[in-house]
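Repro:
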Amino acid sequence: METGVQYNWTLAVYCDPTRPASAVAVRGTLERIRLDSQLSSALSQANDPQTKAVLYAEAGIWHEALTELGEWYRVEPSAAGLWVDLLTQGQLADLADKLLVSCCQTELD
């Protein structure tokens, strides 16, 4: 991915191959950015996922903010309040009670 270029994406789930119109789809846009030196320095000095998540969120880099805090929350349930706060800031509060699973695993594993 090139820095500064916006990319559109779509994810569609087809649960019934006989009814393709019943697919559930989501769409979004993402853009790869270059970290400025100040943020890069602050991230390298951060010693915990909470601080990194806050730095990313303040910079509007939501994927990394959610990843940092989500991974921490999965192993440290006491981070629940921070997780809910971050989701609320990103207008995703309705996801706060959903189960978080490790990357590339399902609930059936």
